[in-house]
Amino acid sequence: MRTIALDGPSGAGKSTVAKLVAKQLGIHYVDTGAMYRTLGWYLLQEGVCLSDEAAVEDALSSVSATIQFSGGVQRMYIAGQDVTDLLRAQDVGEAASKIAVYPCVRDKLLGLQRELAVRYDVIMDGRDIGTAVLPDAGVKIYLTASVEERARRRYQELCDKGETGFSQEAIQEEIASRDYRDTHRAIAPLRQAEDAVMVDSTQLTVQEVVDRICTLAGGKVS
């Protein structure tokens, strides 16, 4: 199977790039973040205290999360319910962030993530895919960009959505703080795998990044 591990810091454009690479190569894009949000959604519905690791582990011990691909789109199921369209709420994202630090949560999803890589040709993005989830991936990419550029992109994205009440400087500070947390967390910290190829997108267009990764993966570029 073809497996591409795509890691990198927040705001580097991993999801956007991964989706386009998947489309260009005709493989599946696996959104690992949606997996954590699925568990977060379930715990919120069950009223579990997210700061209680033991309670979280107990609540998740008897429930299964699964993935199906429909028309190339990932659909998330938990306890047999399709929750894909319920995962973008802010409280669900916050719940996912809180529980992602627990070993029991990461262990529960690790098997599912690895199973997908066995069953399908995939590109999977995250912060520890090449180092922890798929250490034997055929292609490993570390996608990054300068903090300043990532802040600029995020600022422009929010402006395009008509959102106000923020500054590019504040966004840059938050991204820098997120980088520190991700690289210093106790479990599977963000780092470039020794055999990963770094792609710095600071001066590149999205398509240039996609073409570079497709070339590294042995696929055709547009």
TrEMBL record:
Enzyme class: transferase
Keywords for the protein's UniProt record, in alphabetical order: ATP-binding, Cytoplasm, Kinase, Nucleotide-binding, Transferase
GO annotation (BP), single: pyrimidine nucleotide metabolic process
GO molecular function: ATP binding; dCMP kinase activity
Coiled-coil intervals: none
EC number(s) on file: 2.7.4.25
GO cellular component: cytosol
Claim: Plastid is one of the keywords in the record: no
Entry binding sites for ATP: 8-16
Catalytic activity: CMP + ATP = CDP + ADP; dCMP + ATP = dCDP + ADP
InterPro entries, A to Z: Cytidylate_kin, Cytidylate_kinase_dom, P-loop_NTPase
UniProt key word Nucleotide-binding: yes
Positions of the Cytidylate kinase domain: 4-216
Subcellular location(s) of the protein: Cytoplasm
Family per record: Belongs to the cytidylate kinase family. Type 1 subfamily.
Protein name (database record): Cytidylate kinase
Primary gene name: cmk
